[in-house]
Amino acid sequence: MSGFLSALLSAELPLIMEIKPRDPDGTDLLGGRSAAEVVDTYERAGAPCLSVVTGHWFGGSADLLREVTRRTGKPVLQKDFITRREQLATARDLGASAVLLTAGLLPSAVLARMVTAALAAGLTPFVEVTTEREIAAVPHAGECVLAVNNKDIKVRERGTADLTRSAVLLPALLAAGTRCPVSASGIRDATVAAGLLGQGFAGLLIGTSLLRSTDVTAWADEVRRLRR
Ligand SMILES: O=P(O)(O)OC[C@@H](O)[C@@H](O)c1c[nH]c2ccccc12
């Protein structure tokens, strides 16, 4: 099993904590903090894995990913529009353990090729889906993280999140054979997070709410408390 999958599946609190400099509307999310400071905050709160957005419209970059992977020993997911094999080699060189593949943006033959190529490169495919049809197009689902995106990448993650999408698609994720169904985007507080974990998600990907939080450890502790 990949390092990313096993870290998530063995975590006492499976929150993939994300670093991105801006939200899709351009609002700053780092508030003057360095990437290293955010990494340390997330590690103190118990993150088993991290995510770094390298896409430029979120203010990300390859340098940001490098800075994070140098700082942490935790497996790191690269979030970007990965469509070509060369990008997989770059992700690995920058220290990523997992890569985002967006099912809704890739023709199914390309998605299949990229999943296979990522696995061959030792990277965990983190496949984002929004429909049952997209889920059905994911090969080797048992080796992938399958993540329902509660927002819509086609409108650049603007707009409000639809958390019912996660609930509706969870059975299809499990039927596809993933060990690691994840809910991503728009998880605004600990109550929502605890609810999704209670439904059966094996992991959650959270960015904005944690980046805006003044106390990430308290945020995570609240999820722990609600799950008891
Ligand atoms: O900040 P949020 O709402 O917690 O969402 C995190 C993550 O899911 C979101 O940043 C994201 C989802 N899909 C993406 C694709 C590219 C870049 C970023 C993303």
From TrEMBL:
Catalytic activity of the protein: 1-(2-carboxyphenylamino)-1-deoxy-D-ribulose 5-phosphate + H(+) = (1S,2R)-1-C-(indol-3-yl)glycerol 3-phosphate + CO2 + H2O
GO molecular function, one term: phosphoribosylanthranilate isomerase activity
Segments forming domain Indole-3-glycerol phosphate synthase: 10-219
BP term (GO), one: L-tryptophan biosynthetic process
Pathway: Amino-acid biosynthesis; L-tryptophan biosynthesis; L-tryptophan from chorismate: step 4/5
Keyword vocabulary terms for this entry: Amino-acid biosynthesis, Aromatic amino acid biosynthesis, Decarboxylase, Lyase, Tryptophan biosynthesis
Protein EC: 4.1.1.48
Name used for this protein in its record: indole-3-glycerol-phosphate synthase
